Amino acid sequence: SAVISQKPSRDICQRGTSLTIQCQVDSQVTMMFWYRQQPGQSLTLIATANQGSEATYESGFVIDKFPISRPNLTFSTLTVSNMSPEDSSIYLCSVNDREVNTEAFFGQGTRLTVV
Amino acid sequence: AQSVTQLGSHVSVSEGALVLLRCNYSSSVPPYLFWYVQYPNQGLQLLLKYTSAATLVKGINGFEAEFKKSETSFHLTKPSAHMSDAAEYFCAVSGRGYGNKLVFGAGTILRVKS
Q: What integer pLDDT is reported at residue A102 of this predicted model?
């Protein structure tokens, strides 16, 4: 298994600002994922972050709004840019260590409120 | 598009009663299947997973699930509910039919009555 630490655990931000969320894993992993969980809803994949290449975004998510960094095999960041109240969600980092997603471990999430 | 359906957004059981949370998937290729639990204000915890080995999978906290290919189902059960089981449960699938990405169902909130 993998232990994932996310920071911050929660934040309240002003609209128009940006927040960078950090995800640290206790072991080297090939693939890292960022999810959004809007209030009362399920998880939606934002993007897949691979070390050494551009992140791959899912339909409805763009790099300008959610830039991602993956500088090494144990760390990634997700930035929520130019925030609006609609961005209020829980953002979760997830990892697996195989090409085929046979298991996924999640961080505790970052609860973001935009006012 | 491939999908995961969880029947019932809310399920209520009495303490000590059987828990049954339903999950059906749509894929022509047998997927990998997962159940996660999310307690209030916490992240997701893996309960159990099916990855093409035994069709009856035992997980943590007394939960188990059975993969039934003919019914494209992976229902989660627990013989006797405990108050601490109250949480939201997510079924998820992955594999070739899903682009090797983890796709989540809408979730089922389990309420346990005393």
A: 64
